[in-house]
Structures are given as C-alpha cells and as structure tokens.
Amino acid sequence: MAHDETRLSAAEQAALLRSVQNVQTAAVRQLRDQPDPVSVIRFVCTVQRGVDKVVQDRAQGGVKPDCRSGCSHCCSARVEAMPAEVFQIAREVSRLADAARAGVIGRLRVQVAAAGDALLWKHRPVCAFLEAGLCSIYPVRPGVCRKAHSLDVRRCEAGSADIPEDLGLVLDAEALIKGASSAYAQLGFEARGVELARGVLLALSDPTAEARWSNGERVFFPRDDTA
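Above: the chain's sequence. Below: its structure in token form.
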C-alpha cells in the first residue's frame, strides 16, 4: 500500500530526495552524538514521533483519513520495519508474561510460514500483533504503520490494490523514514527494511541479535550486499 514513486513528477521526486538527504544529515549528527547501543535504537522513537507530527499537521490542514479505531483492513499488508524498530518491538514483547509472550511468538511463526511476498495485501495473514481488531504494540508500531491511511474505507473493504492517500502526508513521512534508514546505513548499521513478523521473530529467537546488529553485523540479511 506504499505510494508508487514512479507516479511522481520530476519536481516532486527532486523535492523528496532533498527532504531525505536533509533528514539523513540531521539523523547522522544525532546518532553520532549518542553512539551507545541503547540510544542508537531509541533514536527511532524520534523518527516515529516525527511521522506522528506529519499526520497531525496534515489533519490540522484539512486532511481527513477515513480510518477509525478498530478499522484493521490494512493490518494484512506487508510491513517492512527498520531494524531498530524491530528490536524496539522485540523488547516490548520480551516484557510480557510468559503465556502472552508465547502467544505472540506462536502467531509470528504462523504469519512467517504463511505469508508469501507475492500475495496481495488483502489475502495475506493478519498481523500477529492484531488483537480484537486493535494493535497490541500501538505505542511502538513502525513508522510505516503510523503513516498508513486511507481516504476511502470502502476501497479498503473491497480489497482494492489502489488505496487513495494524501500525497503530502505520504511523502513527508517517507522522507523521515528513508532519511533515518540512510543515516543508519551511512554509520555502518544494517538498515534494509525487514518484514515485520520475520524480523521480530528472529530478534526474539536469538538473544545475541541486538548486540550483533549494534556492532555493525548484518543480522537479518547476512549474505546481502545491498543493505
């Protein structure tokens, strides 16, 4: 459900690139100022708050998404999260009681086993973190989920492949997410987006994953040369 950048005009693409570069520059500076592993992962909260502000500012400017509490049509879409977001979520899951944590891990395994990349969003398994129609990790949900919205819920209900979105909201939010990801990559961290369920399951299954990622090791795509 992400916006197709090939539909942007040359001017819009150039403006997006400038925004991404500006965010990257600022993010690199902040990450260098606080290089300890805890701060490096916590930095992603700043990015997420920025996405939230974009959504709020667009709403104040008149953008009215058709989304409501309990509306979970988009919670079957493929979600790619930044590695720092994955570890942030894994930390929250690790704090759950044993039974609750085991339930989440079980749902993650089912989702990873069933979700094929080629499936249309409406035909994919529901997110493992969706409980009673609500997001159970809402405070730490990825930036991609924070910017997701629809201007016509009827299109979502119908499983349309083309969901109407506010272009300004999408581009401003993507500039923050892509700029932050580029900053992580510039500083030597694995930064390629990882499918949410697969990433969190790996982080929960391997207690060394977070430390190895913080040391610059590729954890999610160990044989990939593009991350």
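Residues 7-214 form one domain.
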